[in-house]
Amino acid sequence: MAVLFVDFLAQMAFLSFVSEDLHRFEFYLRLVWAISATCMTLYVFDMVLRLGSLRGAVLQSFAAILDFLVLVALLVCLYFRYYNLEVVFWWTMASFILTALHVVLKPKTRVFSKKFHKFRAGFEKIHISVASVRASLYKIPGMVADDILTLDRKLTQIAGNADGAMSRTKLMTFLELALVYRPKECSVSEFLGYLRDVDASTYSYGAVDVVTSTLRHWAGQTCDLIMVVLVVCMNASINPLQALFLNLLADQAFIKSPTMDQDTALVYGVVGLLALCIPFALAHDRYFQSKMISKATAQLQCSLLQTILSQPTSFFAARSDGDLNNLFGSDLARVNGLWQAVFWNLINPLVSILFGFGYLLYSQPPLGLLSFAFAFVLVTSGPQGYAAKQSKAFGSQNAYVASDFANAISCQKVVRAYALQPTLLSKFRAVVDTLQSAQFRKDFWSGIVQIYVESAMYIFVAVMTASLAIQVRQGKITSGQFFAFVTMLARVSSPVTILGGFMRVAIGNASSLQRLDMLLALPATQAVSPTATTTMPPMKSSVTFENVSFQYKKGGANVLNKLSATIPKGI
User: Fold this and answer.
1) How many domains does the chain fold into?
2) Are 464 and 389 part of one and the same domain?
3) How far apart are the two ends of the chain, measured CA to CA in Å?
4) TM segments (predicted)?
């Protein structure tokens, strides 16, 4: 990755400070080509090693296939950069864009290669649903209620979360602990057989899945979604219009121009800048955005309840009431916060970037291409993924501490009776110290992500400003264009910074959205018509029963307790 970034930055610096007329920059042209050729040797060597180790398995990864095609295209660009000097600027620009794509694809192909060698059978780590393991505890006959509650707390502590997923290693740790609470009349094989019925998956939601699922849930609010997109586009168009009016003032109003009178240009420019205050003040998307998300949340709640109520009794026997209540208590709240992040941390800044850099691409194509490629690399690389893992680890450790605290409170009578306060406090303090370390890593890497994005964007704007200043001095662009482009770069740098933090928010709450989507995808049982019972023939004899008790689960609470009744004939 370091070699990739060196090649990427060298090409960016070259394209920023030279023009299409390269007769004065032949030395720098050869220098940048030599850097790219040296890096290309390492690229090819790495690709040969990957193809030699993966062979046909490389076709199972779209990222690996695309990375191979990008490398071939880079070789073609490198050839023409040396032998076709007439248009070498644009061949270097194409090589720069392909290098940016190579930077983005490289981590994905590396992860695929590691997973292939480490998990050759499935290419992915297995994720076991914590809720399914908890539900399996209630199916074991002869289990005491207190033992089930104890194992429930231990499961939360080991998994690090109450309703997410756990790894195979953590499941093995829990099974070893659960054997201690095995009923005496139940053999080890039978006991483990009940705990074998768990939901395991090899796929978990990523950022793309979060966005796809969110848009699918929002699709039901078509009118509000269209209005939100319209208002967001109106807000995003303010910055390009402001740049146009600044360009008009600097080139037509401040100095004499043969194309327009100075007073007329001044009036147009000033009135245009003031007129932009109207859409900026009135075109707020908070109303439509709040309305859309609230309606989508209400629709999700109704659909969720409808899906749950349409399930057979086996569905409820396999899940505790707490698991189902968690869907409304925590998962829905987290999904609602995630939807807010999708709008404010993804859609809003993304549209602003598209409009801003689109204006630069139209007015100054090299500057627009450089901006798009740099922003693309910036928001998809760096420590965002590692920061998201630290955030998830903090959430797991926080759940562990909360479970330990709840366990201590529930056992407070025993603790006081045997004077176990010092022992319990020392143990709890060790757990809190671990949480403190996890919180530090979460906050630290979140700050690193922010510093990485802001610093990189600031450096890019500074480099582009210096490049534009040189082009003004050489007469390639006017001073008005310089002020317009610099203003646009400064305005768009903030949305790029916001967009860089979306990955951390998406990964932290993706599991809740995935659980809700999986539940909504369950097939509904066929509802029984209210008039279906009227078609049944009347009873030919009366039925009497006494002291009838009924329970759904063995060892559970009685739904019917010593009920006596007589059903007369003819009903």
Assistant:
1) 3
2) yes
3) 79
4) 27-45, 57-82, 88-105, 225-245, 265-283, 342-362, 368-388, 451-470, 482-507
In this structure, is residue 553 part of a structural domain? no
398 by DSSP, 3-state: which?
Answer: helix
Nearest to 39 by CA among 83, 98, 113, 112: 98
What's the CA gap between 43 and 102, in Å, rounded?
10
How far apart are the C-alpha atoms of 513 and 210, rounded to whole Å? 7
Does the pLDDT of residue 487 top 60, yes or no? Answer: yes
Under 8 Å between Cβ of 197 and 136 = yes
Residue 198, φ and ψ in degrees, nearest 5: -125, 160
Contact criterion met (CB below 8 Å) for 89 and 20: yes
- The answer as to whether 254 is a domain residue is yes
**Domain boundary, last residue among 521, 542, 565:** 521
Distance CA 90, CA 74 (A): 13
- Decide if 11 contacts 95 (C-beta within 8 A): yes
pTM as predicted = 0.69
305 and 275: one domain? yes
Q: Give me the CATH number covering residue 279.
A: 1.20.1560.10
**Mean pLDDT computed over every residue of the chain:** 79
Q: Is 430 helix (H, G, I), strand (E, B) or coil?
A: helix
Half-sphere exposure of 477 (CA within 13 A, CB side): 24
* CA pair distance 337, 345, nearest whole angstrom: 11
Tokens (6 digits) for 418 = 């045997």
Q: How far apart are CA 139 and CA 153, in angstroms?
A: 17
Domain of residue 239, residue span: 207-521
Structure tokens at 399: 């759940």
Measured from the Cβ of residue 17, the count of other Cβ atoms closer than 10 Å reads: 14
165-166 β-sheet, strand order:
165-166, 127-129, 200-201
CB 108 within 8 A of CB 63: yes
Q: Are 92 and 37 in contact (CB under 8 A)?
A: no
- Same-domain pairing of 180 and 250: no
Asked if residue 103 and residue 132 are part of one domain, the reply reads no
State the pLDDT confidence band at 119, using cuts at 50, 70 and 90: very low
